[in-house]
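Troubleshooting entry. The earlier prediction with adenosine-5'-triphosphate gave an output that would not parse, so I re-checked the input for stray whitespace and re-submitted. Clean input:
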Amino acid sequence: MIIIKYLHIGIDDTDSPDGMCTTYLASQIINKFKDNGIELADYPRLIRLNPFARFKTRGNGGVSLKILNDDKSNLARKIVLSEVEKLSMFDCDNTNPGVIFYEGEITEEMREYAFRAIYEFIEIDEAEKFGKSVGCEIHKFKKGRGIIGSIAAISLPLSDYTFELLTYRSAENYGTKRQIDYESVYLMDSETFPDTFENIDYSEDYIAIEPKTPCPVLYGIRSNTVEALEVAKSIVKVNEPVVDYCIFKTNQHTDMHIQKASDIASMKQFGCYEVVGEVKNKPTIIDGGHMFFYIKDESGEIECGAYEPTKNFRKIVSHLRPGDVIRVFGGIGEQNTFNIEKFQILELNDVEYKNPICKCGKRMTSAGKNKGFKCKKCGNKIESDEKVQVKIDRFLETSKFYETPVSARRHLSKPLCRM
Ligand code: ATP
């Protein structure tokens, strides 16, 4: 039996808010590989890690590449290291690239490490110790924080995945307004959704494929299939040069960051969870436009937030009533508030208690404490203090999911069109 051996390459922390993108660096490496007859054994991977990681630039993404481990693998290593040295944003304090080379099969402990990098915080020393223990060749630039994400990027199993097509700009256009024909983006969305998704936020008239940073990316389209990406790319028109493009296999939009919590008390700060709870109070909006309410269960309670950037989602949240039972998905942030990404209605409290209706048809009013009700119209009185149950119409629907708009969605959040 012939055993095929692979070289796994992990790269992270090469960019800064002022420029670059680790995916662009990867696409440059892939081009150099092609020039030298080095082929990838699978799609390059873009792996999103812990959304709460302290030092992230934007979406906490690392990249991994897999090639045959043959007589060209030393050349491949040289190409990777020289591109990282050439293109990383070393001037930024917060850019600390890390590169990993790993020969062989990904082991169970590496897979576990990768999930820890999504759920928890890992220190550089810890990542280095772990990487060495499993036989990774480690290259740290400056502090080398990128090794944390690089090891995870090669190790994460993708039981669910999507693809992202990224097109890249010509260097002289970096930082200038992107010349994307928005009409063609609307057309692309209408022709390819839901095979592609997250293209446009219709509620905000926001073109989500266009980054807002000065990075080399011209636009990025997300999809379940590579075929849909090719179609989408043929529809989107731009008025500036596209110097390159690359399709990444990714854990974006898979909910891989979400852990099932058995109850509210078991959730920890900076973790992302799915948990069931009963709405305790009516959602209220505070200055700044953030909306909050509590959910509770037998173990405790937690404040849930729908923040201002979630825009119209807050209107939906405002329809929740005490007694509703919901399943919420999201993460516990800095303020210890559960930041909602989406929720499902499990039970709706559609009962309200009102004063009884008099024989004459008018709703009665209280006759005073423990004195029953009286009718202002006909003077009728009843002794009982008991209000009557009235069924009310609800805007929200049982079983239905409600999600934040595209413009406010995390890279890892699974949109409803994928559920
Ligand atoms: P972009 O999305 O543009 O690629 P980014 O948001 O991915 O940028 P990076 O520049 O990659 O940001 O920085 C993220 C840093 O956090 C990296 O050094 C990475 O190794 C590290 N990191 C990733 N996951 C964790 C984790 N679970 N704990 C601690 N550090 C982490």
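This one parsed fine. Residues 6-155 form a domain with the Alpha-Beta Plaits fold (CATH 3.30.70.2200).
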